[in-house]
Specification:
Layout: E1 9-12, H1 17-26, H2 30-47, E2 53-59, H3 63-78, E3 82-92, E4 97-99, E5 104-105, E6 110-111, E7 119-128, H4 134-137, H5 147-157, E8 160-169, E9 180-185, E10 196-199, H6 206-209, H7 215-227, H8 230-234, E11 243-250, E12 257-262, E13 274-277, H9 283-291, E14 300-301, E15 322-323, H10 334-347, E16 351-356, E17 362-363, E18 365-366, E19 376-379, E20 385-387, H11 415-418, E21 419-421, E22 428-431, E23 435-436, H12 438-441, H13 445-449, H14 461-467, E24 470-474, H15 483-496, E25 506-510, E26 515-516, H16 534-540, H17 542-551, E27 559-560, H18 566-581, H19 600-619, H20 623-640, H21 649-662, H22 667-680, H23 698-701, E28 706-712, E29 715-722, H24 728-737, H25 739-745, E30 750-756, E31 760-765
Helix pairs in contact: 1-2, 16-17, 17-18, 18-20, 18-22, 19-20, 19-21, 20-21, 21-22
This protein binds one RNA strand of 86 nucleotides through helix 5, strand 9, strand 13, helix 9 and helix 18.
Amino acid sequence: MHGHNVFFPIGFDAFGLPAENAAIANGMHPRDWTLANIEGMRRQLRSMGNTFDWSAEIVTSDPDFYRWNQWIFLRLLEQDLAYRRMAPVDWCPRDQVVLAREQVEGPERRCWRCGTQVIKRDLEQWFFRTTAYADELLRYPDITWPAPIRVMQTNWIGRSEGARITFTVAPDGSQPGGDAIEVFTTRADTLFGATFMVLAPEHPLVEKLTHPNQWEEVEAYRDAARHKSEIDRLSADREKTGVSLGSYAINPIDGERIPIWIADYVLLGYGTGAIMAVPAHDERDFEFARRHQLPIRRVVAAPGTEDEQLDGAFIAHTEGERLVDSGSLTGMSAPDGARAITETLRERGLGQSAVTYRLRDWLISRQRAWGTPIPVVYCLGQCGIVPVPDDELPVRLPDDFQLPPQGGNPLETHEGFLHTTCPRCGEAARRETDTMDTFVDSSWYWWRYLSPHKADGPIDRELADRWCPVDQYTGGAEHAVLHLLYSRFFCKALADLDLIAEREPFLRLFNQGQILGEGGLRMSKSRGNVQDPDELVARYGADSVRLFLMFMKPWEADAPWSATGLTGMFRFLNRVWAVTLDAGGTDMPKPAAGAAVSDTGDLRRLAHRTLREVTDDYQGFSFNTLIARLMELTNALTRARGTAAASGADFDEATRLLLLMLAPVAPHITEELWQRRSSAGAEEWQSIHAQPWPAWDPALTAVDEIDLPVQVNGKLRDLVALPPGLPAAEVEQRVMERDKIRAQLAGKELVRVVHVPGRLVNLVVR
RNA sequence: GCCGAAGUGGCGGAAUGGUAGACGCGGCGGACUUAAAAUCCGCUGUCCGCAAGGGCGUGUGAGUUCGAAUCUCACCUUCGGCACCA
């Protein structure tokens, strides 16, 4: 209606565990189960009147789509943005699958799909190197996204600036010394306060650095750490356990010998997996030092507070704080101290400034059959991991796999799929049986919508340049660090592969809310609280249901489903029907006395004002208030029905504008009414959805009379009807003449008159 | 614990410094009808009052302002995110 070309495609994210599990439960191949479901959803979406471009439909489980996942995977592999390595990973014991870090939720570390607590396992897995773009992902140039989403992503990426510092292991009776332990710290200024070191129990240097006398104790601790559950290990209020390795390191700034410990509060996966412990200035180190009687030495203090007793770590930065007890740097401000120490270490080759991120690489392999096969083979000869050549893509999922009754991945036992030959040397080879995380599918699908059948590449560059980035994206906040982060990573990676031009996929993001099940929980089949629109659509019509979904809450808010109020939408549309087709009110009992509308100009003005406001509301996604305004207009027209006013041109224009304004949200009934209006008149019929958006007449939207609120001491006391544009002095004079105001002012002293022209007058009295 | 969002009638919600409660649901009353349904009209925050009118009122308490649901501070509650990140 605004003359833009709009591309509004639809598709089905059809791979994944829910489909696979449901297929198992129903004894079907997941493909058959999925396609049957898609058929149902297509019908349901059409019944709601969604105006998708079905010619561009994508089904991600179709080989024509997933072959390009494989093709992109191979390009990322070439660029070292995809890799395989052994790592401690999150494993969901119920789904029997590994999960990406983003897919493990909450303090109890539960699987995002099934809610089971995950466990850590050391497994060899495939990763995408999202960390390569960590810094760029922190920038959001020229995109209009809700601030909370950006905050969540920023926190998730967790950039922190500091220094890497090398501690050298000291020689002693059992140990020649000389090994380097690298640590990361954000507080280089506290280096003089480092009184011990802590390595993660899994740190590779532990075995080498353990003194023979400590061997047994260290082994026992490492073993316990390995078997401890994730939750136990991560709960922050747990006692800080650890054991000494019996060896020592040299503090690179002052040469002091400090003991080396292992403790499970240091995580292998963050920074370097080792820390310098400064108990005076870090809560965790403080707690650990207290428990194990290690020295606590304060090295930063505000003047005059140096001798205060510490009963906790001193963390907060205070005004004027300076280094104390820090050799030649004593007296320096803390930030200068950090710089000086880092610089000194750099000169000695023992340190440098550094940045660390909380973000981990994206673990994309899944031990399940219903996903995109990862296109590599393991050569049983000499070649190791060999990528499948492009011209052998797609690596197809077999059509006949049997789901093993005991669970697990059927691809591992499918002889036809498993056995192949090495593309490099021709010897026997085994296919990779892991499939890709389904978030891979959703990370680039919108480019594929532009050319879903393109056979010689994933993306039509010319079309992508013309249509992308996506102007308006809609999605839930629950995808903040999942789909929305992965998609930004993909965009940057695909831009570096020169497949697309842009580096951000979605210019404007709107977080629509979710309609929750009764009880306020997310709808899901497993909870059995799914609401099906079919019955409501059959009973009230798609337009009523659509309107109600938009009217019941702000578009961005979550709310539990309740059909209370749906009847209001149905009644509203009935009134629209009545004012459009039966302005004379033949069905009305009889004109209500006193309801006659004499000034049809009022209807005109209301229609034009409504148009102005509704146009604004559409722009701002304020669907609920827009519908309310259309109801007001309809109610005014309803009151004029059956009166002389209803046969006039103003009434006719108002109903015409009403239909046009309503068309985007109630497409079916407005089209029908539009068509009937056209055939009643002489105009040749054209779809209402192809009409230009109407323009309002500024002369009609201008204020013609105001009911000026008059307050006395901020309390509303009167409303004074006035023409607009009256001089301030005259307005005030008229206000003062009002009986009510006189009564209010009687016996009081008028101190001040606040007059906001056109808005109100406030009389301040004493 | 840290970060973020929110708290308004019986219910969903409107109003982002200027008439609190638009619009809808529900409720009450009326018209039409033999009757009911549907439809249409009116009323509906709360307390006092026959009325005119007035008091109170946006989680709680303070503050800024002529004026606060809206801004500031503290607190309470709910929801979402993070979880020893050095």
